[in-house]
Amino acid sequence: MAALPESISQRLVNWARIKSPWITLFNSGACNACDIEVIACLMPRFDIERFGILAKGSPRHADILIVTGHVTLKQASRLRRVWEQISEPKYVIAMGACGASAGAFHGLYHIMERVEDVIPVDVYTAGCPPRPDEIINAVVTCLNLLKEDQVHGGKEWRQNKSDEMMKPIERKVEM
Amino acid sequence: MPEVIVPIGPHHPALKEPVNFRVIADGEKIVRLELDLSYNHRGIEKAAEQRDFIRVLPLLERVCGICSHSHSSAFAKGIEEIMQIEIPPRAQYIRTIIAELERMHSHLLWLGVAAHEIGFNTLFMWTWRDRELVQDTLEEMSGNRVHYGMNEVGGVRCDLTPHQVSTALERLPFLEERIYQYVDMVNDQQTLLLRFKGVGKLTREEVLKYGAVGPTARASGVDYDARRDDPYFVYTEVPWNVVTDTNGDVYGRTCVRIGELRESANIVRYCLENLPKGPVRVNAPKIAPEGEIFSRYEAPRGELAHFIRTNGTNKVERVDIRTPTLANWTSVAMCLVDQNLADIPVIVAAIDPCLSCTSRITLINTPGGKPGIVTFDELRKRGQTYCQEQGPP
C-alpha cells in the first residue's frame, strides 16, 4: 500500500470511510448479552446512526466486524470465512471478557480461548457485557486507528510499535 | 414442481444468532424444516459440575443474556430446597421484582424484534426506547444492565434502598401508559394485523402434542403457568392473573405477551410497595446433602427446568438444563408447514427463540461426514459395551 493516498478519488473514499463506518455483527457463540447491547446502540437512546455508524447484515458491506463473545469450535471456521469476506481495510472489535479470554467460560471443552486465535483483533472492549457507551467508544477508537493507518499506509506500523513496546519489558526481565 | 432446499444461516441478516435452517420448499410453500442448533454449544452443563455453588451461579447466569436471572434463580431455588434453607421474605420479594422486570424487558425486546421482522421499524424503535427505562431500573438495582448477578445461594447479593424503590415506582406509570398504547397498536394497525393474523397457527391439541410451553402454549388456550401451578418466590401472595388467548397464531402470542407486560408491571408495583423489612440473605452451608431436585421456573419464554443432583460435596454431580426454546422448536417446525416462505422470520421469532440456551450437540459420523441421530437403544447398547470394556469399578 502507498505511504500516502494520492489520488483524489482515494482521498474521497478515505474521508467517506471515516465519516460513515459500517459495522457487521457476528455471534460467534455468545450468550446474547453482547448482541442485545449492540442492538441497543442502534436504538433512540444511544442512536449511533447519528455518527454515521450503520449496522449491516452482509460482511461484504462492512468496515468493522464486531465479534460477540468467545468462539465455539463449530463457529471458528465460519468466523474466519466471514472475516475473509470483508474488504480491506477491515477492523475487528472483540466484545467483552469473552472476546479477550473467554471470561466465565474459560476452559470449557467446546470453545477457543480467544478471538485472536482465529482472526486478528484491533480493539478490545471490557465488560460482561460492555455497556452501549463502551461499544460506541470502541468504534470511535477503531476510527482513530483507521485515520492513523491511512497516514502510515497500512496496519504494519502498529505491529512494529507493539514490538518496540514489548522490548523494555524484556530488558526488565533480564535485569 | 420439484422441492427446493433453501439454506438459511448460520450467518444471515435475518438471524441474530447462529442457527442453520434447511427449509424444504415447494414453490412459495414450506414443506418441511430441518434444523441445526449446535453452533452455540459451549458445554456449560459439564463445566457446572466442576465449580462450587458460589462460582456456578455466574456461569449459569451466562447461559443466556436475556433470561439470565431465570437460570440463576432456577438453580438457586433448587439448591436451597436441597439444603433445606428458607430464604428471608425480603430476598424473595427482590428476586420477584428482578424476575418480573426481566420479563418486561424480554417481552418489550421481543415485540420490537417481531415488528422488525415484518418491516415495521417504528414499533421496533419505540419498544426498545421504552425498554431502556426497564434497563435503567435494573441497572440501578443491581449495577448491571444485562447480567444482574443478584442471586446467591441463600438470598440476594444486595439490598434495595428506599431511593431505588421510589425511582422504580416513578417509572412504572409511564411504562404502563406505553403498554396500553401497544395494545391499541396491535389491535388497530393494519400492518400488524395483516402479517400476524392467521400466521403460524397452532391448535390446543397440537400444542399439547408437541409440548410447547410459555406464551406459545398460552396463546393457544393452554392455561398453564409455572408461577401459578408450581408456585415459588412470592407469586402466591401477589394478586395476578395468567394471560391466555384463543387465537393460537402470531397475533395471539403478541396479545399474550402484551398482557403479561401489564401483569408484570402490576406485580412489580405490588412487590415494591409491600417490600417487607429484614435481612436479604442467610448464610448457606458450603456443602449440599445428597439429593435430587427438579426445579421449575417460568422464564419469559416459558417453563425452564433445572434438574440438579448433588452428592454431598460443594459441587453438583449433574445439572441438566431444559430451556423453553428447546421445548418450542418442534411446534415451530410443525406450524411452518404450508406457510409462505416470507413468513419464516416472523413465525420463528414468535416463539422468541433463544439459541444460546438451546444449543445441543449433533453427532457427526466422521468417516461419512453426515450428521445422524442416535436412538435410545443404540445409546444404551453403547453404554453397556463401554461398561463391559471398562470392567467393574
Description of the structure:
The complex is a heterodimer of chains A (175) and B (393). Chain A has helices spanning 8-19, 33-41, 73-85, 96-101, 132-152, 156-174; strands at 22-27, 54-56, 64-68, 71-72, 91-95, 111-112, 123-124. Chain A is α/β, with parallel strands linked by helices and 175 residues long. In chain A, the strands form 2 sheets. A 5-stranded parallel sheet of chain A has the order 2-1-3-5-7, with helices on both faces. In chain A, strand 1, helix 2 (33-41) and strand 2 form a beta-alpha-beta unit. The radius of gyration of chain A is 17 Å and the shape is globular. Chain A starts with 7 loop residues before the first helix and ends with a helix. Mean pLDDT of chain A is 82; it is low at 165-175. Chain B is α+β, with helices and mostly antiparallel strands. Chain B has one domain (44-358): Cytochrome-c3 Hydrogenase, chain B (Orthogonal Bundle). The mean pLDDT of chain B is 89.
Question: Taking all residues together, what is the mean pLDDT of chain B?
Answer: 89
**Spatial extent as radius of gyration of chain A:** 17 Å
- CATH topology name of chain B, in short, is Cytochrome-c3 Hydrogenase, chain B
Oligomeric organization of the protein chains: heterodimer
Flag low-confidence runs of chain A.
165-175
Classify the secondary structure makeup of chain A into a structural class.
alpha/beta
Topology, please?
The complex is a heterodimer of chains A (175) and B (393).
Chain A: H1 8-19, E1 22-27, H2 33-41, E2 54-56, E3 64-68, E4 71-72, H3 73-85, E5 91-95, H4 96-101, E6 111-112, E7 123-124, H5 132-152, H6 156-174
Parallel strand pairs in A: 1-2, 1-3, 3-5, 5-7
Antiparallel strand pairs in A: 4-6
Helix pairs in contact in A: 2-5
Chain B: E1 4-8, E2 20-26, E3 29-36, H1 44-48, H2 53-61, H3 68-83, H4 89-117, H5 121-142, E4 151-152, E5 155-156, H6 162-188, H7 190-196, H8 204-210, H9 214-218, H10 226-229, H11 250-273, E6 291-299, E7 302-310, E8 316-322, H12 324-335, H13 344-350, H14 355-358, E9 363-365, E10 370-372, H15 376-390
Antiparallel strand pairs in B: 1-2, 2-3, 4-5, 6-7, 7-8, 9-10
Helix pairs in contact in B: 2-3, 3-4, 4-5, 4-11, 4-13, 5-6, 6-11
